[in-house]
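SAMPLE LOG
Freezer: B-3
Tube label: C17
Construct: single chain, 505 aa
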Amino acid sequence: MFEIRHILVRMRQGDSDRALAKAGLIGRPKAKALRLVAKDRNWLDQASPLPDDAVLAQVLGAPPATASAQSCVEPYRDVVTDWAGQGIQSKTIYQALVRNHAFGGSYSSVYRFVRSLEINAPKATVHLDFAPGEAAQVDFGSGPVLVDLRTGEEVKTWFFLMTLCWSRHQYAELILNQKVDTWLSCHRHAFEWFGGTVKRVIIDNAKCAITRACTRDPEVQRSYAECAEGYGFKIDACPPRDPQKKGRVESGVKYIKRNFLPLREFRDLTDANRQLHDWILGEAGNRLHGSTHEKPLTRFSTEKPLLQPLPEHAPEVATWAKVKVHRDAHVQFEKCLYSVPFRLLGQTLWLKAAAVTVRLYREHELIAVHPRLARPGTRSTADDHMPPEALAWKMQDPKWCLTQAEQIGVACLCLIQRLFSDRVLENLRAAQGVVRLKKKYGAVRLEAACQRALAYDNPRYRTVKIILEKGLDQHPSAEQAFDTLADSYTGQGRFCRNTRHLLKH
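STRUCTURE (predicted):
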């Protein structure tokens, strides 16, 4: 009502309705109506005091509200209110009304109705204050697209950002992925950058940190939990879909996108991170912050002594994952295979992947240790993890078969060589079978059986086995049998005498 009081003062001073309208205080028709009311109530008399705001409000009051037509969406108020409460957009609500309820109104009517609901009223918020060294906020943001100089391919990047809540000093790093080990490495780099750790780290619900997002009972990634224990900070995960709880790092993400990324060129990831760190220690760290009205680096000089000291030994950057043992006695992690004892087939184990090693646990029992493989599709296999038959197949290679055959005898070695010289078949199992017959029949009999098989030009495992099973290796060979039979015809046998008798006649 102070505008009306000002107009009344001007009227007392003799201003006309035209002058008041020209000054932009009130229109001429309204000025005329107000002047009539003022004369009736003697408000224009210089001797009488001006009425207070309560009297003006009672006399003049607000103009009566004109009755408006009912919205065509009103019959569907309950269902529209329910949908709007679920966060469904007005366009989707309009399409559902047309599709399911034969709604004949326009989209604008639905939009106005949804905007008028109380659920869309702005919610009050509270500004959070933090003590020096108390907390830091962490988030990811999309980074620039770099070009691989070796292949010419475009590489998408992200940047990791940690902001100290009190001083607003930042650590940022451009990365190529959002994996668990990258997340943990960035935390280590950030704490080393600040020279200490905070008591609480406020994060979003990224999968590399939180395995189950929940307002009251979130589940933390096992690797991140070990990192928190090692550095001595507590994890404070924001409620799902509520990033405002870490608004300081959210503002920092926007600040980097708008002030650092534009109009810059990067040769590679290393060059981009170098420019980013120089920018943080230069322009970003020495700007006058809009909230604190101080330079972040100036406030950080006060906060740094209050940070928690770094541990003597930095926690190991390792990724935990549940893996299942497949039928080949291997587990898979990041497209690489690692062996475990074959007796664990079908069981679920814990895998801990560090920078250079991979460890496998059953509950708390260490099962196997392997070097970490970098190239997808590669395999790390320990011989003692394999079943006996598989281990035998792997260990008894052609070289081993030839060595064993040489110890048995010349005929056995020759037969094994004949098997391996086949142009079609590998014959490794056949050679292994021949050599193993030594355990059952001995080296002497096996050598004789091989010699007999070679005499008949049939160097096969089945032939040698049948010879030994039927004891044919103990019978005279084919050449010896022919020489004995020859004596019957060339010696003093009866067939020979009859032959000479016939020749005489």
